[in-house]
What we know:
Layout: E1 4-9, H1 14-23, E2 29-36, H2 45-48, H3 61-64, E3 69-70, H4 74-78, E4 83-86, H5 92-104, E5 108-111, H6 137-144, E6 150-153, H7 162-166, E7 174-183, H8 209-220, E8 223-224, E9 231-232, E10 238-245, E11 252-260, H9 266-274, H10 279-282, E12 293-296, H11 304-307, H12 310-313, E13 316-323, E14 329-335, H13 339-355
Parallel strand pairs: 1-2, 1-4, 2-3, 4-5, 5-6, 7-10, 12-13
Antiparallel strand pairs: 7-11, 8-9, 11-14, 13-14
Helix pairs in contact: 1-13
Amino acid sequence: MKRYKAGILGATGMVGQRLVTLLAGHPWFEVTALAASAQSAGQPYKQAVAGRWQMPDPIPPAVGNINVMDAMDLQAVAQEADLVFCAVSLDKASTRALEEAYARLEVAVISNNSACRGITDVPMLIPEINPEHARVIPAQRKRLGTQRGFIAVKPNCSIQSYVPALTPLRDYGIRAITACTYQAVSGAGKTLDNWPQMQGNIIPYIAGEEEKSEQEPLKIWGSLSPDADAILPGKHPVISAQCVRVPVSDGHLAAVSVKFDKKPTREEILARWRNNETLPQKLQLPSAPVPFLRYLSQEDRPQPLLDREAGNGMAVVIGRLREDPVMDWRFVCLSHNTLRGAAGGSVLTAELLCAQGYILQRE
Length: 363
C-alpha cells in the first residue's frame, strides 16, 4: 500500500508532538512535512523542540532531522502533503482562514481546532458515532471550489468520554444530561511541572469549555439535510455542563447523570455498552480500539492513572453505573484527552476518511 503523505501544522506544540509520535511508523501515513511558527522554521525538528519535548517517548528518529517549515508558507507545505493535521495556536478567525486556504490548495485538513466546528458543511467527527456526516464533504468542496481539499474537525476533548457512552442509549429517548468534567492539565497544553498554580489545586473554570460541552454533542447527534449539504444539529437533549481543571497530567473524567423518556434497566444499559459495534472496528482501522467502550465493575474505577491508556489511549472507560435520585441513571467515564480527545482522534478520523475515499493521494 502506498502511504499517504501527511503534514503537521503546529508540530512543535503538545498536540503536534503527540501527532508526531502517532504518525511515526503509521502503516497508512508517512510524515513528509512539519510546520510551525516562523521562529521554528528552518531548524531540524529535534532542535526546534529541544528543551520542550513533552512526550514520554523520545523523538522518533524518522522525523527528528526533518526541517521545520513555516506554516504560513502554504504552497511549500501543500506540495509535500496529501493531508495535514492542524494543531496551530491562533485565534479563531486566523485558524479558519489558514485551514480554508490549505483546503483550497487541494489538501485534506484534519483539524484539532474549534474554528470550523460550527460551519454546517464541515463534519465534526467521532468516527464510532457519526461517520455518515462525512457525506457533507462534497458540498463543502463545492463551496470552497476544490476537487480534493476539504476540512474535517474533531470535537472538543471534554465530550469525548460521555458522548460515546450515551450514544448507544439514545433510542431510549435521552431527555436531559448533566455532566461535570474533571480535565487534565495537558488539555491546556501544559504539564504539572510547568503550571505551578495547579499544584494541589483545582480551577473551576475553563474558558469556553462549558459552551462547547453543551452544544457540540447536538451537532454530533445531528442529521444530514435532505440534500446532504449541511449537518443539522439536534435540539434535544438539554445538556448542562460544568468543566473543572484538576491536577492530573492526562485523562478527562466525566460524572454524568441522564434522564430518559423510557428508562432502561441496568442490564439493558450494560448490554448496550458491551455489544456496541461501530464502523471503525468493522473496518479494522489501525487506531480503532477493540472494544471501544469498556465497563469496569470496581467501585473506584475508572481512574486516569490506571485506565487512560486503555485501547492505546483510544478506548472510553465507564464505571459506577447506578440509579440517580433526581435523574434516572448516573455513571462516570474517562477518556485520554491528548489521544482519543485530540491527536489520536484526529488520526482515527483521517483513517476513516481514507477508508471512505474522501482523502485522495496526489498523482
